[in-house]
Amino acid sequence: MKVYIIRHGETQWNAQKKLQGASDTQLNEKGIALARETGKALAQIPFSCCFTSPLIRAKETARLVLGERDIPVYEDSRIREISFGDWEGRESSELPAQMLEYFFHYTEKYCAPEGGESLEEVCCRTRAFWEDIISRKELREQTILVATHGCAMRALLQNVYENPSIRDFWHGKVPSNCGVNVVEVREGRAFLLEEDVVYYA
């Protein structure tokens, strides 16, 4: 099995440095263009199906990447973005600087805001998704696309990294919009073949 995991294209909230989380925002023009370029770069990849977060920005990214291909697309809430609860829709300058610092740089100290999810909770639901798809016999020899979000992507990849930990959750950086990670699963073991590749025009 090969799994292409992609973060959604840019949204206006990304450009404005607003926390999106589980809010349902749409791609902006730059995000649409980048998703199309990614689709061109992956045009020869023989995807058999696609799993996408139910949020619009991920679904639209998947649609643009797949283009005219007639393959099944399944929405799965286990790969939606982390919820930031009361913080969603607010610019980073309006939020507690220390907790944002923890979220991006000292993740083991991060505490979710009111109504939000912890990183451990996101890791738990994305792990359930990962274990589900890699155990499906009908997918074992297939190539699939997974369209998700920055934090959810890193949580999903905790099942792939050699030394996963909450302390090193971001694996060096937040993935770029339309960043693609390619994972191969062989005999139950996962190998990261490409990391955070962005296909610019």
TrEMBL record:
Its EC number is 5.4.2.11. The record marks 149 as: Transition state stabilizer. InterPro entries: His_Pase_superF_clade-1, His_PPase_superfam, PG/BPGM_mutase_AS, Phosphogly_mut1. The active site is at 8 (tele-phosphohistidine intermediate), 81 (proton donor/acceptor). SUPFAM superfamilies: Phosphoglycerate mutase-like (SSF53254). It comes from the Bacteria. Pfam families: His_Phos_1. Coiled coil: none annotated. One of its GO terms (biological process) is glycolytic process. GO terms for molecular function: phosphoglycerate mutase activity. The keyword 4Fe-4S does not apply. Substrate binds at residues 7-14, 57. Keywords: Glycolysis, Isomerase. Transmembrane segments: none annotated. Belongs to the phosphoglycerate mutase family. BPG-dependent PGAM subfamily. This is phosphoglycerate mutase (2,3-diphosphoglycerate-dependent). It comes from Candidatus Blautia merdavium.
